[in-house]
Design a protein that fits this description.
Layout: E1 14-17, H1 29-41, E2 45-48, H2 62-74, E3 78-82, H3 99-104, E4 109-112, H4 117-127, E5 131-133, H5 151-155, E6 163-165, E7 170-171, E8 192-193, E9 197-198, E10 205-215, H6 216-219, E11 239-244, H7 250-262, E12 269-275, H8 287-295, E13 302-306, E14 317-319, E15 322-327, E16 332-337
Length: 339
């Protein structure tokens, strides 16, 4: 299956905002307004959908969410779709989405992470259209730390031109900003120091492949189904598989990764990237040990504490992009090329 990229976003293009999983509570609408204005100030038109209700854990019934997402992905006037954030049960949309129809439409950028992995990774695997595992809309107003790239710059990048990202060496150790009191906050609190960590051994890492991955807790539920089948993706090219844990303890993550490996998700992995996590360790098993227990048998480099998860800051990764990962004592870097 050939990877297809939506054309680069340009000023004047329209961005659709919908909540395929959780909507936005009334007290957080101020933050949503700030994020929408930021898009508009960059020259984009913004179309906010009807599926945005935040009074419960879902923004609307599944059929309505699926219809709105499909409409946005098949509307030639909408060039990108981004949710306010993730949620819990976007999995209920999968049997309701017409992937063949979406695949026939002109490709549209889809951006997000967390529960959005439940939809974006299958979208890329089933249609070949690249998607962006990156900041959600509510995170967009934050200033991007040095070395990293905003999702807005990723979707506007010229195809075929590589772009590099390097870890800033700092991350947020815990807590959340109060968007109800300060909806316009733009400075990330990065109060801890940390670098990438090789889990499987020592030595330099320099490996290439097609990127694919997402949130462990949501993707694990798709293991062994057509929605997470990497066997036909990008021909026979090696893959750079990335995973990240949101909140489950180390025993659960260990089981999830074992199940994904047994289902073949990592079969073509040339390396595995693991997002930095604040998810708890378990008694006798840390999060790092859980990853190594499940993925060590792959015999490929496993690099952890990458900025591609629920711990700020955010390093956007393009599902389907050609990637090169370098990790040595002197530098850590990932280069992506949309080709």
């Amino acid at each position: 299956m050939t990877v297809r990229y939506p054309r680069p976003l340009r000023p004047g293009d329209r961005i659709g905002v919908t909540s395929p999983s959780s909507g936005v509570a009334e007290q957080l609408r101020g933050r949503l307004d700030v994020a929408v204005r930021d898009l508009e100030e960059r020259g984009y038109e913004v179309a906010v959908g009807r599926c945005m209700d935040g009074s419960g854990h879902l923004s609307a019934p599944a059929a309505e969410r699926a219809a709105e997402l499909t409409a946005m992905l098949t509307d030639p006037d909408i060039r990108a779709v981004v949710p306010p954030w993730g949620g819990e049960t976007a999995i209920d949309l999968l049997p309701l989405l017409d992937f063949e129809r979406i695949g026939r439409a002109e490709p549209t950028w889809v951006v997000g992470y967390s529960d959005m992995s439940t939809l974006m990774t299958p979208l890329t695997l089933l249609t070949g259209v690249a998607t962006v595992h990156g900041n959600n809309l509510m995170d967009t107003p934050y200033r991007t730390p040095g070395g990293l790239t905003s999702w807005l710059d990723v979707v506007a990048a010229p195809q075929g031109e590589p772009f590099a990202q390097t870890p800033p060496g700092r991350y947020r150790s815990g807590g959340w900003d109060d968007w109800t009191k300060e909806p316009g906050i733009r400075d990330l609190t990065l109060d801890a120091e940390g670098a990438w960590t090789r889990l499987d051994g020592v030595g330099d890492v320099d490996v290439e492949g097609r990127l694919v991955g997402g949130c462990t807790e949501t993707l694990a539920n798709l293991a062994g189904t057509p929605y997470l089948d990497t066997s036909r993706f990008a021909g026979n090219e090696p893959l750079l598989v990335y995973v990240e844990a949101c909140e489950d303890n180390a025993f659960t993550i260990c089981r999830n990764l074992h199940g994904m490996r047994l289902a073949g998700f990592f079969d073509r992995a040339a390396a595995v990237l693991v997002g930095r996590t604040s998810a708890p360790d378990s008694r006798g098993l840390t999060q790092h040990e859980a990853v190594l227990d499940a993925l060590g048998p792959l015999g490929v480099p496993v690099v952890a504490d990458v900025e591609c998860g629920h711990v700020a800051p955010f390093l956007p990764l393009v599902n389907g992009a050609r990637g090169r990962v370098v990790h040595t004592a002197a530098r850590s870097e990932i280069v992506q090329t949309l080709d």
